[in-house]
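Fill-in record for Ribonuclease 3.
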Amino acid sequence: MNKKDRLLEFLDQENIVPKNLNWYMLATTHKSYNTNDKTKSLNYERLEFLGDSLLNFIASTYSFKKFRENSQGELTRWRASAVQTETLSAVSKRLGLLQMLRTGPGQMHNDVVESLKVQADVFEAMLGAIFVDQGLQVAWNFVQKHLLNDENEMTISEGFSSGKDPKTQLQEYFQSISKNNIHYVLEENNKLFTARAVHEDMVYGVGKGHSKKEAMIEAAKAALDKMQKKGI
């Protein structure tokens, strides 16, 4: 199945009958796909800009109505947890958006789709396309169905209540049981960073990203997931 067919299947599953399919094609086109001067602007970046603003509006409205006793600062923290890159990346993967993404060839494709930021951006771009093509209500329903739902509620609330990123959580755990802190071993290959979360010569998690920070966050997440599965 080619990428266009995957896109059409996705829209059908979402009960979306596109008025203009080009918006959705654009939402799934990375800037590395078009390198010609005349077409290089034909990518998802403008739709991602729109989707980002729209997502913040929807999450703000949702939290305002749901958490009636919370302060402005608490609502801001909840929204930040709901729309953070890690959350959107997970939703994007679950929806299969990366399998529709058109990118440059070979290793470039692998580097692009492994980026947390790209994964999150594609979700926002798709939201932007739905809004432009179908209107606010359909876009709102899309976010409610896939992001602001019971499945994600616990993850979002955990991030809201702790306010801590995976690196901080992992660091605090090891500080509570050992005099030695967790540290990260970094490698770079073709602008892609690999990080290993290491404690006392044992690798607890490995992560990749297009920046050192992204790679270390991914390594910390992998370590936390591994430890949770082992009941640590």
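KEY FINDING: The chain has a mean pLDDT of 86.
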